[in-house]
C-alpha cells in the first residue's frame, strides 16, 4: 500500500500480491457461506457437495498466503508497522480458513438433514443468520482494503445481532425437540449448524479487529459485545 | 535452542524466553482443562469460577507471546528455519488460547448444569474425554520441547480416540433426550461440552502438527485421521 511516505518498494509490491490473494480467498469464503446456507434451505445435496469441493481451494489459498507472507518477512526484513501488517494478513487468512471449514461442515450436515423430515422454518431462519454473517465478512474485508477502522467497528456490533439470532434459534429448536422426540435428531444437527454460523460471525469479527489493530496500533480495548447467553440459559420443564 | 551449529546468539536467547512462556501457558491450559472437567463432574461451581478467572492469565500470555515474537522478528530479522520457528510458536500460542477458551466455556456451562437434574454418568464420561485431551496436550508440548516428530505423530492418532469417545457420548445423550423431554435442556449443554472437548483435541493435534512442521519442514501429508462421524449420523425413530 503506497501511503505517500515512500515510493512503492519491493515490499509494497509483494504485500499487494498477498492482499490480492486475501481478497480472492474472502470472496470464495463468502460464496461458500451463501451456497452452503442456500443448499441447507433448499435441501440441495448437489450444491452442498460443490461447497465441500470449493473448500479445498480455500484451504490451498490459506497455505499459499502463509508461505508467501513468511517469504516476504524473510526476504524484506520488515520492521514495526510493515511487520504488523504481514502478521495481520496471516491471522486474517486463518480466520477466513476457519469460516470456510464451518461452511463445509454446514454442507456435510445438509446431506444428512435432506433425508430427515424438515423442521418448519428452520432452513429459512438459518439462511437469514448466514446472510448476516456474509455481510459482516464482506464489510470486514472492505474495511481491510480501505484501512477503515470505523467500518470495522460496525462489524463488531453486528456480531451482537448474530448472537441474538442464535439465542432465538436455540430456543426455537428446543421447542421442536420437546414437542416430538422424532424431531430430536434433525434438531441436533440444526443446533450445531446454528452454532457454526455464530462461530463464523466471531471469525468475521476477528478480521474486523485485525483491521482496527492495523489502523490504530492497538487491539480494541473494550470487551467484545456478547449477545450469546445460551451457555447460561436454563430452559426446561424443571423451571415451571 | 542451541543446535551445535552456532554459538548461542541473541536470537537463541530471545527465543528461549518465548518458549518458556509457551510452556508456562501450556501448563496453565492443561490445569484449566482438568479443573473445568472436575468441576463439571462434581458440580463444583466455585472451581468453575476459578477456571474462568485463570483464563484471563492464559489470554494475557497469548498477547505477550505474540508481541515478543513480533519484536524478535523485527529486531533479529531471522531467515528460513529460525523464522519458521518463531511463526510456529505464534500458531501454537493461538491453539493454546483456543483450548483455554473452550475450558472456560465448559466452566460456564457447569454453573447452569449444577442447577438441573444430573444425567447419569455424563460427568464421568466427559471427565474421561477431557483427561485424554489433557494427555494429548502434554505430549504435544513435550514433543515441541524435544523437537520430537515421532512423539508428535502419536498425538495425531490419539485424536481418533477422542473423536470416537465423542461419537459415543453423542449417541448416549440422544437416548437420554428421547427418554424424557425434561432431560433435553441438560443434554444440550452436555452435547456442546462434548463438542468443545473434541475441539480441544483438534487444537492439541494442531500443536503436534506444528512440531512435525518444525522438525521436518513440511506439514504432515496424509489427511488427519478423522474419527468424528456424527455430522453424517442418522439417528432417530425415522430410521426404524
Automatic annotation (TrEMBL), chains A, B:
Organism whose genome encodes this protein: Celeribacter marinus
The protein's name: Phosphate-specific transport system accessory protein PhoU
Domain PhoU: 22-110, 126-211
Presence of keyword Cell division: no
Main location as per UniProt: cytoplasm
GO biological process: intracellular phosphate ion homeostasis; negative regulation of phosphate metabolic process; phosphate ion transport
Alphabetized Pfam families for the sequence: PhoU
Family: Belongs to the PhoU family.
Keyword hit for ATP-binding: no
Domain of life: Bacteria
Keywords on record: Cytoplasm, Phosphate transport, Transport
Amino acid at each position: 500500500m503506497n501511503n505517500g511516505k515512500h515510493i512503492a518498494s519491493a515490499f509494497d509490491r509483494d504485500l499487494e500480491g498477498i492482499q490480492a490473494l486475501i481478497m480472492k480467498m474472502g470472496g470464495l469464503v463468502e460464496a461458500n457461506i451463501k451456497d452452503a446456507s442456500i443448499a441447507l434451505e433448499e435441501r440441495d445435496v448437489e450444491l452442498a457437495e460443490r461447497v465441500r469441493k470449493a473448500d479445498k481451494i480455500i484451504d490451498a489459498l490459506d497455505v499459499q498466503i502463509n508461505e508467501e507472507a513468511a517469504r516476504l518477512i524473510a526476504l524484506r526484513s520488515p520492521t514495526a508497522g510493515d511487520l504488523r501488517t504481514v502478521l495481520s494478513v496471516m491471522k486474517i487468512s486463518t480466520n477466513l480458513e476457519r469460516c470456510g471449514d464451518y461452511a463445509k461442515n454446514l454442507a456435510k450436515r445438509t446431506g444428512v438433514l435432506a433425508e430427515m423430515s424438515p423442521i418448519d422454518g428452520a432452513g429459512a431462519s438459518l439462511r437469514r443468520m448466514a446472510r448476516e454473517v456474509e455481510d459482516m465478512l464482506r464489510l470486514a474485508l472492505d474495511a481491510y482494503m480501505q484501512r477503515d477502522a470505523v467500518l470495522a467497528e460496525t462489524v463488531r456490533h453486528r456480531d451482537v445481532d448474530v448472537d441474538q439470532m442464535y439465542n432465538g434459534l436455540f430456543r426455537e429448536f428446543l421447542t421442536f425437540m420437546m414437542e416430538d422426540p422424532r424431531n430430536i435428531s434433525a434438531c441436533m444437527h440444526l443446533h450445531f449448524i446454528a452454532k457454526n454460523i455464530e462461530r463464523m460471525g466471531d471469525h468475521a469479527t476477528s478480521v474486523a479487529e485485525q483491521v482496527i489493530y492495523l489502523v490504530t496500533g492497538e487491539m480494541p480495548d473494550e470487551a467484545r459485545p456478547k449477545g450469546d447467553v445460551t451457555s447460561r440459559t436454563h430452559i426446561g420443564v424443571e423451571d415451571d
